[in-house]
């Protein structure tokens, strides 16, 4: 259960990956990474000082995060903010585990890249055209339905 979050962060083995040539804005990504908190446990110092207490702290954080993530997974098919709760559980795990911190950093980077792509004028124009075509098709199908059957509900049609 011990993820060696302190040892890995101090030893430098769990550093964030370097930006690749295809990144959206390499300068902005580098500046953003420099401002991020270092990887590792964010437990209070008196907890980190005692190995048994730190291990039990990690177990507690893991169980709490697991409960929140499980609730989010249950909310995916049911009413509720499933993905939001899942990311909240990941944020709980990220307070203690390096792997969760890296997953959250990757997720934030991908969401930022997707938002920047969505704001691209070509992509926006394409999305507006596709949405308009879809609405026209739905309108035509609804018009044909109302012309043929009127306002009768599908389960009350006798023909």
3D architecture notes:
With 159 residues, the protein is mainly alpha-helical. It is built from seven helices and no strands. It has helices at residues 5-11, 26-35, 45-48, 51-75, 82-94, 98-118, 121-149. The longest helix is centred in the C-terminal third of the chain and has 29 residues, at 121-149. It is elongated. The termini are far apart. Mean pLDDT is 78; it is low at 5-27.
Please, what is the average pLDDT? 78
What is the succession of H and E elements? HHHHHHH
User: What profile does the largest beta sheet have?
Assistant: none
Low-confidence stretches: 5-27
Report how far apart the termini are: 65 Å
Query: Tally the helices: what do you get?
Result: 7
Number of DSSP-assigned strands: 0
Share of helix among residues? 55-70%
Q: What is the SS-derived class?
A: mainly alpha
Please give the radius of gyration in angstroms: 25 Å
Q: What would the principal axes of the Cα set say about the shape?
A: elongated
Strand content bin:
under 5%
Brief digest:
The chain has helices spanning 5-11, 26-35, 45-48, 51-75, 82-94, 98-118, 121-149.
